[in-house]
Amino acid sequence: MINIGKQRECFFDDYLIDTMRTTAESEIHNPVRREMVLVHDAPWEGCGCDYHNFFYDKEYGKYRMYYLGWKTNDVGNIVGKIYPCYAESTDGLHWEKPNLGLVEFEGSRDNNILKDYSVDNFMVFKDENPECRKGEEYKCVLQATKSVDGANKHYLKCMFSSDGISFTDGYEITDCGAFDSLNVAFWDKEAQKYRCYFRGFHTKGSKNPEISSPYDWQTDVRDIRYSESKDFKEWSKPRILDFGSSEDIPLYTNVCQNYYRAPQIVIGMPTRYIERPSWTKSFDELCGKDKRLSRMKAEPRFGLTTTDCVFIVSRDGYNFKKHDEAFIRPGAEFYENWVYGSCYPARGIVETPSDICGADREMSIFCFDNHWMGEGYATHVYRYTLRLDGFVSRHAGAVEKMLVTKPFVYDGSDMFANMSTSARGYIYFTLKSADGEKIESCEMFGDSTDKKIGFEDGDIARLCGKEVVLEMRMLDADIYAVRFE
């Protein structure tokens, strides 16, 4: 029996939905591009800057962002070091790069560089485990290299910090992977365990995570791997994420996290890698042709590959539903987009006010443009906005549809829904108990992320704690989430 209590249940997957009786369709929603929030134009930065990740630090009173600062030449090769860098914000909208004074660059320490060595990725989280060891309140995971039988082998290592700025080396987590992406680790309070998601390769059609390097960049499939731990020291054997019967397609840069409004859910926004086999006339008509051809001099896939982003969701952290329609598309063509490096969301979500006076708050996420454009270009970070709980809805168009849940138990005397209708549209909510009692709502219409549902038959508290099914009869409407209070 599903007991949702008072927690918000989002319709990102089929967890609460009786799919045999439901006709309302699952619909992915694309975030809206807004203003530029960061320009990476410092001398140690450039068009290679990527892998942004951030969180709100309650003790510090700010959002804290970590990213890689680097640049490329016109054929896509790295120029200089790839530095781990730091930025911060009080509101998630306006970001600053403070002078940390830690690393000397070209004779000055006035910069936001965290470490004086070249890294491929650098992900930091604030450890909220009450048993976190002193001095390890901030944890970092990154790719490192070791010598095995005279050959270099990548592995995932951790680092620790007491302040989120000065980090000391930790230890190896696993070497079963490739790790050349934004690898992610965090404490899952709901599950009472650490989760770790990282980059690997597997042979197409196989789920064996033990593929040996070197990888075949064209035929092997980029994958996301998972491991978990109770103490951040001993980790489970890595497994490739299970997407059920969904297409085995290259994914990486997972940005997995607990969804902050429904932390029992793990969500991700992985980048999807699409490499076309050869140059076609469509590439001739695609933006940035000259830069694309220049990058192909170093390696053909640098010009033949484009990337977008999909949305994934899990209830156990390992078995995921993958929505195969793009969550973020490269968008309207201009000179600096539609490249291998488009649609890399930052890990993190910040809730921000709407630009519309009086409207509900919304979620902001961040993506960058100007990637891999060569000398003289700077990465631009843009804000994208999305309705609260707005990743996926169940939708009805001009023909009436039904959403029917599985049996569940709730706790509360009022029901609230995140819903949107047209002026003509509506949703009727009906609660049915296992013993035959039924409570129906009036016609509900409007657009609100937390609309109180008006029930004609009185107080729904009398069904509290009983097994019920919720039916929603919908026309020209979307339902995103429900909760009881």
Strand-helix topology:
Layout: E1 2-5, E2 9-10, E3 25-28, E4 32-40, E5 50-57, E6 62-72, E7 78-89, E8 123-126, E9 138-148, E10 151-161, E11 168-174, E12 184-188, E13 193-202, E14 221-229, E15 239-240, E16 251-252, E17 257-258, E18 266-268, E19 271-275, H1 281-284, H2 289-296, H3 301-304, E20 305-314, E21 320-328, E22 350-352, E23 362-369, E24 379-387, E25 392-396, E26 401-404, E27 408-410, E28 415-433, E29 438-440, E30 447-452, E31 468-484
Parallel strand pairs: 1-27
Antiparallel strand pairs: 2-31, 3-25, 4-24, 5-6, 6-7, 8-9, 9-10, 10-11, 12-13, 13-14, 14-15, 16-19, 17-18, 18-20, 19-20, 20-21, 22-23, 23-24, 25-31, 26-31, 28-29, 28-30, 28-31
Summarize this structure briefly.
This protein has 485 residues and is mainly beta.
Report on this model:
The chain is mainly β. The chain has two domains: 117 residues, Galactose-binding domain-like (Jelly Rolls), CATH 2.60.120; 358 residues, Glycosyl hydrolase domain, family 43 (Tachylectin-2, Chain A), CATH 2.115.10. It contains three helices and 31 strands. Strands 2, 3, 25, 26, 28, 29, 30 and 31 form an eight-stranded antiparallel beta sheet that branches. Strands 16, 17, 18, 19, 20 and 21 form a six-stranded antiparallel beta sheet that branches. It has a four-stranded antiparallel beta sheet with strand order 4-24-23-22, with no helix packed on it. Strand 20 and strand 21 form a beta hairpin. The longest helix has 8 residues. The radius of gyration is 24 Å and the shape is globular. The two termini are 20 Å apart. The model has no long low-confidence stretch (mean pLDDT 95).
